[in-house]
Amino acid sequence: MIKKEKIKGLHYSVNGTIAAADLQAAADEILLEYGKKVKMPGFRAGKVPLSILRQKYNASAYGEAIDKLMNKDLNDYIADKKIRLAGAPKADMDGWEIGKDAEYSLDFDILPSLPEIDLEKITVTKKVADLDEKEVDTALENIRKSRSIAEKQDEKYKAQNGDIAVIDFKGFVGDTAFEGGEAKKHHLTLGSGAFIPGFEDQIIGHKTGDKFDVNVKFPADYHAENLAGQDAKFEVEIHAIRKHILPELNDELAKQVGQESVDALKQHIRNILTEQYADAAQREMRNELLDTLADKVKMELPETLVEQELNMAKSEFERSHSHCGDAKCEHKWDEKQERKDAERRVKLGLILAEWGTQNKVEVSREDLQQAIWAEAARYPDPKQVFEFYNKNQNALAMLRGMLFERKALDAMLTHVKTKEKKVKADDLFKQAPVK
């Protein structure tokens, strides 16, 4: 039973005692359950005497009994106080011995109550833009390019930007050929930026059969240290030049991409772009509302959750910067700023979780499936994504949590005031990502 408490804000320190007799009774009950399963020489299954079980399993049974009774005390306490834990308590039973009363202490943080938020007093900006028909034309051109045929050109044809040059090349620094600088009949798309700066530009204007040198300078930050910043010469021979021939924009092409006609294809593209405009505007409204909530809502935060968030951020920082030394990494860990960011994330997470629960926001099975499908579509092998979530329940729970917060935020936006702001289409996509 918990007898003493010390409360400071959201942090609780409590002390309790478990009577030795209660502990022994609970341990014996656990031992009897052990006895139903264990097999010991000289005894029939399930018939091992309690005294024998105590000799072998008493310490283990006592450990389980302490956890069970301490958790019961804690659950009774938080139910009586009508509080919710922010994380697992830190327990201490220093100095306890079997056969004596168990005196313990528990330290834990609780979740704060959500302050009243008058969403109707909050105003966010909704950016609206007229559909730019140039984007429709660009999309149509990209469809044509995706179905182009790279036709081989005759020997009089001079290579242009966008063509595919089939080349042999061999690289030298001074008079010495360097490792990895040679290939035969390599297909290089001119203008792709696949080779070091200046290389592809010097192919343009040449014809099939030409043999010539390309002179370049390796970037100072080139991954191979022996080549970084070095002047180099490549001996090049062109075997063939292929030019992309685009199909005509007609109904036949439209049918190849699932539309009945060019007009239907254009309208389909407009619908997609309109949806993208709306999504971009919604993302920016979410960000603005998050900024307002982070700034306006005042609430104490459980230090347990802040430390947990900060530790996760630090682990991710160390992982992402493990490839470089201090001299090469411009961004340094800023404890003060990172803690401030962690506090912001914890605050917003608590607000969205509590408000969403109070307003019956739910993540349906369909919501979850659509999110997994959307993520799977970004990968060459979608099956791997499905298998990952099927086998990783923690990842699935994290995805569900993200969807819950997104749905809660969108539900909150239905209660705020909005003011429209006319912008250019490009300005819709310049906002920062959702925080």
What does this structure look like?
This protein is 43% helix and 20% strand. The chain has 435 residues and is α+β, with helices and mostly antiparallel strands. The two termini are 44 Å apart. The protein contains ten helices and eleven strands. Strands 6, 7, 8, 9 and 10 form a five-stranded antiparallel beta sheet that branches. A four-stranded antiparallel beta sheet has the order 1-2-4-3.
At a glance:
With 435 residues, this protein is of the alpha+beta class. It has ten helices and eleven strands. It starts with a strand and ends in a 13-residue tail after the last strand.
> What's the end-to-end separation, in Å?
44 Å
Percentage of residues in DSSP E strands: 15-25%
Helix content: 40-55%
Largest sheet: 5 strands, antiparallel
H/E element order:
EEHHEEEHEEEEEHHHHHHHE
Net shape: elongated
List low-confidence stretches: none
Please give the count of helices. 10
Give the class from helix and strand content and strand pairing.
alpha+beta
- Average pLDDT rating: 91
Tally the beta strands: 11
Please compute the radius of gyration using only Cα atoms.
34 Å
